[in-house]
Specification:
Distance between the termini: 103 Å
Number of domains: 2
Number of helices: 12
Largest sheet: 5 strands, mixed
Number of strands: 5
Order of helices and strands: EEHEEHEHHHHHHHHHH
Low-confidence stretches: 1-15
Structural class: alpha/beta
Radius of gyration: 37 Å
C-alpha cells in the first residue's frame, strides 16, 4: 500500500491471521496440555503475550495439574517467543514440561532459560567483635600460607636431591638463562638505585654531623650501613619486584594454559623443570648483585663526600678502610642466599595458585611482590638481632 507521493505506508504486524501466535489449553488424560500454534516471534509480540496470559489464567489449571506445553504446532519460534515461554513456564506449577519440540527449539529454550534474580544480600549490622574476627581469620590464613610455604620448600629440597642423584636431568641451559635474566640484566638498574641511595644517605649524614663538627664520620656510617644492611636489603627488594614477579607471572601463565598439567602427563616433575633452576639461579645471583650494589652505594657516598663534604677520595678510602672489615661484608653476603630462597619460594607458590583468569594472575603477582618484600624485611630484622646477639 502507498500514499499519494508513492511512498510505502508501514502496516501493523498481522496478529489475527493464520500465522498469529495462539494457544489452546485443554485437559488430557495425564493432566493439562497447552497446544501452541502460529508464529511465536517478535512481530507477533502482542499475540505472544496474550497467549502467555491465556495459559496462566486457564480455568483448567486451577487444580494445579501438571502442564505439558506442546510445541509441535509452532510455525516459527524466535528469541522473544522462547523467552516468553520460559517466563511463563517459571510461573506455572512445578513439573511443567515441553513436548513436541524440535532440536532447534530446545537449543533456543536452553539458551534463554529463565532464571530468577538473586535476592539482595541482607546488610549486616556492625558488630564490635567483627575486627577481632577479621584479625583471627587473617592470622589463620597467614598460618595456612606459612604451612604451604614450608611444604613447598620440602618439595624443592626433594627436587634438588633428585637432581643431585641424577645430574643428567638437571637443566643447565635453564639455569644459565635465569642467571642472565636476574643478574646480568638486573645489574644496571640495581647499581643505579644503590648509587643514588648512597648519595642521598651520605648527603643527609653530612648535614646532621656538621652540627657537631664530625662530618668525616659519615664515611663510617655509609660504609657499615651499606655493607651490613642497605646493599643487600635494596637488592632483595629490587629482585623481589623484578624477578619474583616475573617468576609468578611465568608460572601462572603456564598454569592458565595447562602447561604444568601437560608436564605431569608427560611424566616430568614441574618442580625439577621449573622451580629448581630458578631458585638456584636466584640464590647465586642475589649475593653477586648485593656485592655490586655495595660498590655502587659506596661510590655514591664517595662522590657526595667529595662534592658536598669536601672530603677527598683518598681520605674517604683511608677512613673507609679503617671503619669496615671483612665481617661487615660477610654479614650482607650471608643474608643474600636466604633472602633469595624466601623470594623464590613465595614467587613460586603464588604462581602455582593462579587460576584460569587474568584477574587471578594479577592478584597473585601483586601478592607475590608484597609478601616477598615483607618477608625480606622481617628476615633482615631477624638476622640483625642474631648477629647482635653473637656480637658479630
Amino acid at each position: 500500500m502507498a500514499n499519494e507521493g508513492g511512498r510505502p505506508v508501514p502496516t501493523a504486524p498481522n496478529t489475527r491471521g493464520a500465522d498469529a501466535a495462539r494457544v489452546a489449553v485443554e485437559r488430557v488424560r495425564d493432566g493439562v496440555a497447552a497446544r501452541l500454534a502460529g508464529r511465536w516471534t517478535a512481530d507477533q509480540a502482542p499475540a505472544v503475550e496474550a497467549a502467555s496470559a491465556e495459559m496462566l489464567a486457564a480455568d483448567t489449571l486451577s487444580a494445579g495439574s501438571p502442564l505439558v506445553i506442546d510445541l509441535s504446532g509452532l510455525a516459527r519460534l524466535d528469541t522473544l517467543g522462547a523467552w516468553v515461554l520460559e517466563r511463563t513456564r517459571a510461573a506455572l506449577p512445578a513439573g511443567t514440561t515441553y513436548a513436541g519440540a524440535s532440536p532447534e527449539h530446545l537449543i533456543l529454550l536452553r539458551e534463554v532459560a529463565y532464571r530468577e534474580a538473586a535476592p539482595a544480600a541482607r546488610r549486616r549490622r556492625f558488630n564490635p567483635l567483627d575486627p577481632v574476627a577479621s584479625l583471627g581469620s587473617g592470622m589463620r590464613s597467614l598460618g595456612h600460607q606459612g604451612l604451604a610455604g614450608l611444604a613447598f620448600l620440602g618439595e624443592v629440597v626433594a627436587g634438588c636431591l633428585r637432581v643431585l642423584a641424577r645430574p643428567r636431568s638437571f637443566r643447565g641451559p635453564a639455569l644459565v638463562n635465569q642467571v642472565e635474566q636476574i643478574a646480568l640484566r638486573g645489574a644496571p638498574i640495581i647499581m643505579l638505585i644503590s648509587f643514588l641511595v648512597g648519595c642521598i644517605v651520605t648527603q643527609q649524614g653530612i648535614i646532621q654531623l656538621q652540627r657537631f663538627g664530625a662530618q668525616t664520620y659519615v664515611v663510617n656510617m655509609i660504609g657499615i650501613l651499606t655493607l651490613r644492611e642497605l646493599g643487600v636489603l635494596l637488592t632483595s627488594i629490587m629482585v623481589a619486584g623484578r624477578s619474583g614477579s616475573a617468576f609468578t607471572a611465568e608460572i601462572g601463565s603456564m598454569r592458565m594454559r595447562e602447561e604444568v598439567d601437560a608436564l605431569r602427563v608427560m611424566g616430568l616433575d614441574p618442580i625439577e623443570i621449573l622451580i629448581v633452576p630458578r631458585i638456584i639461579a636466584l640464590m647465586f645471583a642475589l649475593p653477586l648483585l648485593a656485592f655490586l650494589a655495595d660498590l655502587a652505594a659506596l661510590a655514591g657516598g664517595a662522590l657526595t663526600s667529595l662534592l658536598y663534604g669536601g672530603l677527598s677520595l683518598e681520605a674517604f678510602a683511608f677512613r673507609l678502610q679503617n671503619a669496615i672489615g671483612f665481617r661487615h661484608l660477610a654479614i650482607g653476603l650471608i643474608k643474600a642466599p636466604f633472602m633469595a630462597l624466601i623470594i623464590g619460594i613465595i614467587a613460586s607458590v603464588e604462581g602455582f595458585m593462579v587460576e584460569g583468569s587474568a584477574e587471578s594472575l594479577g592478584r597473585h603477582v601483586t601478592a607475590s611482590v608484597v609478601k616477598s618484600i615483607f618477608m625480606v624485611i622481617v628476615l633482615d630484622g631477624l638476622f640483625a638481632v642474631f648477629f647482635a646477639a653473637i656480637d658479630f
